[in-house]
Every structure is written in structure tokens, then in C-alpha cells.
Amino acid sequence: MFRFLKYLLILLVLGTVGLFGYSYLLEPDPTPGTTTIEIDAG
User: Fold this and answer.
1) Model-level pTM?
2) Membrane-crossing residues (predicted)?
3) Does residue 42 lie within any of the structural domains?
4) For a surface tag, which of 1, 10, 11, 23 has the fewest beta carbons within 10 Å of its beta carbon?
């Protein structure tokens, strides 16, 4: 019984860590990939 609860707790922890990691990977990058620099040629 205690072995089952221990495995269930480990699976629960790994599942929550996996979900947080997956949602973190799905988030868009806060820094823009392309930066435009305006050059005044006048």
C-alpha cells in the first residue's frame, strides 16, 4: 500500500513538473527575434 502511494506521489510530481515545463516551452519568446534599426540617410 505504501509502495503504491509512493509511486503515485512520484508520478504526480513528475507530471506537474512536465506540465510546467511544457507550458514554459509553449510560451512565446519575450524578446523579439528581429529588431529593426532605422537609419536616417538625410
Assistant:
1) 0.52
2) 7-25
3) no
4) 1
